[in-house]
Amino acid sequence: MPPATRHPPPADFVAYIRHRCSAIATLSFHRRLGLAIELPSLLALAFVVKLLAAHDCNLSFHFAAFEIEPQRNDRQSLLHHLSLQPIDLPSMQQELSLSFRIVILTIAVTVGRDMRADEVRLAVLEVDVAVLQIRASLAQRLHFGTCECDACFGFLQDEVVVKRLSVRGDQFLGGFGLRGHGERRLYATTKTSTAVATIQRVAEKKIIVHVVGTGTIGEPLIGLFNQFKECWGIDEVTFHKRTPAVGDRAKVNQLINHGARLATDEEARDDFAALGHRVSYTAEEAIERASVVVDCTPAGNENKSKYYERCKGPRTFLAQGSEFGFGKPYARGINDEVVGPDDRFVQIVSCNTHNISVLLKTIGWENGKAHLDAGRFVCMRRANDVSDSKDFIASPEAGKHDDPEFGTHHARDAYHLFQTLGEKLNLFSSAIKINTQYMHTLWFDLELGYDITAEEVKSRIRANTRIAVTQRRSVNQIFSFGRDHGYFGRIFSQTVIPLSTVTVPQPRKVVGFCYTPQDGNSLLSSVAATLKVLEPSKLEERLDVLRPYIFREI
Fold this sequence. Notes:
By secondary structure, the chain is of the alpha/beta class. It has helices at residues 11-25, 85-96, 171-174, 192-205, 218-227, 249-257, 269-274, 283-289, 300-306, 351-363, 409-419, 454-463, 475-485, 520-534, 539-542; strands spanning 167-168, 186-187, 208-212, 236-240, 261-264, 279-282, 292-295, 316-319, 328-330, 345-348, 365-366, 369-370, 372-382, 397-398, 427-434, 440-448, 467-470, 495-498, 503-506, 509-516. Helix 6 (249-257) links the parallel strand 4 (236-240) and strand 5 (261-264). Helix 10 (351-363) crosses helix 11.
């Protein structure tokens, strides 16, 4: 506060103040014995026309957007000194907005009710991180000195304030070439490097799931992680989209509005922004920040060699069914015991491979071991997903047998899945694409190593909680049930078996049909693999929220 001689109040009042404070004013411990102490006696006085009234000590704080209007009989002290205000307070506000992670605390003397102007007290230094304590606008009983009617609290977001010893003056700020405010202010400071390091350590502890791709599996998977991230212990969900498209604008904005953060390639960032998307990270930044990366694109193996193998941040990378060789194959309920947090690369097998595998483990297993002589399968695949307007066909189209040993990738992937359990099965599969968008249909023919009856087979099927049974044989009715009762139309059961189609023509031969519930089983396995990495001990508990969509009967 400026000296009293610049703003002469009434003569009798000045004489009174000088008489009461002359002894204290001469005391100064500043810079004595290395102490930064100064008695704020005269600095705490506000020379107003009238002293504090009995009920004028309750001054409310409001939001930073509003000024705190001067009170106390609607007068302002020393109005002719307002010419210095643009130099004083606005300069302080300008320095407060600098992003050096430095918090400037305005120190004032606390006053009580009916306080007299000659009751001089030391200012109390607040050691709490008060800048992060946002409270209701109640009276805080603080006194503002002259020219401080615009004082306010600013909001901070995602800042880490580290407690340090307070210093007097602006020697620390001077190291950055900043203008100071003189020696009559106290600053609580932090070293920039310390604050940045602390923020980095905090970021390392965040649990972040990053999904690559927004297609048939990627889009619902982002929605799953977003909706259940709190009960799954996930702090943030990010996703990558490669190509900006006007037709996808609503989809991308919906994902962002529900809490996911968009990452794009650096060269496409401006194109996404032009579509109105908020881009939070580049592709490589998002991958490096993530705890788990789930690649839902047909380029998983390419991305592995290009990005994933050299990344240090993520614990585990997951890829989907088409990416054979990406890592250890996994299907929920089939080989859970051999896949864990130490597996850095994991392949979630395809939806039809899930179907084949659960049939084999339910019917072809006896006393915890495989007793299967041979398994033959025909996958009647839907032409495309209901969300896809391309690649539909007008008539059935037979698939090629690309693999001389297994026929198609479905049997090959199932073989390698069970190989992780030490089993080598005799499997072969064929595929044909049919002109429907509903569900895949699977015909199976299992030759067992033991005798079994049709009722025993059906009893095993009913006992498996991952299999849904049905009395319906029409795909559109089963698909409609999922649309009405599933998670956004998805059925998370591994397969749906119409019991009336299951037969045992010979004591060791089982034949029947079943339906693959779109991508629901792959989605469930992707979630389970992610949660196994994050906290294996809570896997079953955290999956409880999805059990209502794992149907026992349709």
